[in-house]
Amino acid sequence: RTRGVRSLMLRSVSRSVARIAPSSGTYRTLALKSGQWVRNKDDLHTETKLVHAGVDPDPITGAILTPVYQSTTYVQESVDEYLAKGYSYSRTNNPTVTVLENKIAELEGGYGAACFSTGMAATIAVITSTMQAGDHCVITNCSYGGTNRACRTLFTDMGMEFDFIDFTELANIEAHLKPNTKLIFSESPANPTLTLTDLSAVSALAKSRGLLHACDSTFATPILQRPVDHGVDLVIQSTTKYYDGHNMTVGGAVVAASPELHERVKHMQNVHGNIMSPQNAFYTLQTAKTLALRVRQQCENAQAIAEFLERHPKVDVVRYPGLASFPQKELADRQHMNGLHGGMLWFEVKGGTAAGRALMDSIQRPWSLCENLGALESICTCPAVMTHANMLAEDRLKVGITDGFVRLSVGIEHKEDLIASLKASLDALPDELADEEAPRAAAA
């Protein structure tokens, strides 16, 4: 029986070969060739670009992964041919980092990208490449705490001006523009309140006034939104978060929409000496491949968790852009792609700060009480103590970040296990805490 099956297979193969083999016995060469792309790279789907964008097999060995070029310097053929191969010193450019920069630029739809040692280094590069002493910036009053601190202390001490304002209304942004305004700095969704900025409207306003618009899009990733498509000039990504997604590295990226802006950012990267390390670039090249898979699962889990929290009697308020109750639901649906709204949400429990702290102190695995976000592991964070402690207390309260504010970064574990842990902690809260109804700042 086995010989009969093998005979049938051989006859089938022979017939297939006969269709492409001329009678002379030599095989004619097909027009298709291994190693060539099936279609123009620009026409590939996002999931394919996540794996392959910017990456080519190593020309010497054929290695499918980009090597880690752990080298400080690069040998030149001659003085006249200095930089002929593009590299001289790894503070300026490194081959491994360049591949990641090209990948991120393509994923984000920008002209070019520069990768940095941290997300804050990327933010610092945006400010220093667009502003100088005497210039003014209109910036969202709700952003990552480190961004707020850098603008409020470091850059203010250098003679720059910042107005920290509500970005949910375009008219409010326009009202704060001054003759010396050079930059509009948004963050959408904002950390940690998830307030959204209408990126197209703000970009149009910026262009009408000859200003630049920079947006921190870390919470969204290019799976949810591509700010460049909305007219944004500079996009910030803390690659520590979703691009990494495994709690392994720290890093950042700035995506520029134009060659001129890209050169300015790269110049600051070189001057500051804060380029990403080649080892971290290698790790991020690998983790970015699963970004779409991870983000979709995180979005699905976050939606289910938000709906559970909204139904629980001890929860006072919950905010997630996928909920019908989200104050900016229309903008979320219009601006976010693929019907996805991210893996971040926040809530407060009845009883105020004491109840919120009690819940966070009792949260069980698979949740982890720590900083960071965007990872495979689900994380519970107290922004008032952790990520936003460096904001002035009155500024935190103005945007709704109370001491009992609970921020959740939803991972890829099974949603029922995550919900079971939250339910256990909520159910265990003493009724007297839930009945206190401590005064709370207006939720953003």
Task: Explain what the structure shows.
The radius of gyration is 26 Å and the shape is globular. Strand 4 (181-187), helix 7 (199-208) and strand 5 (212-216) form a beta-alpha-beta unit. By secondary structure, the protein is α/β, with parallel strands linked by helices. It has helices at 2-20, 46-52, 95-108, 119-130, 145-157, 170-175, 199-208, 221-224, 259-272, 278-287, 291-311, 329-335, 352-362, 393-398, 415-428, 431-434; strands at 112-116, 136-140, 161-165, 181-187, 212-216, 234-237, 252-256, 315-319, 344-349, 368-369, 379-381, 406-409. The strands form 2 sheets. Strands 1-7-6-5-4-2-3 form a 7-stranded mixed beta sheet, with helices on both faces. Strands 8-9-12-11-10 form a 5-stranded mixed beta sheet. The longest helix has 21 residues, at 291-311.
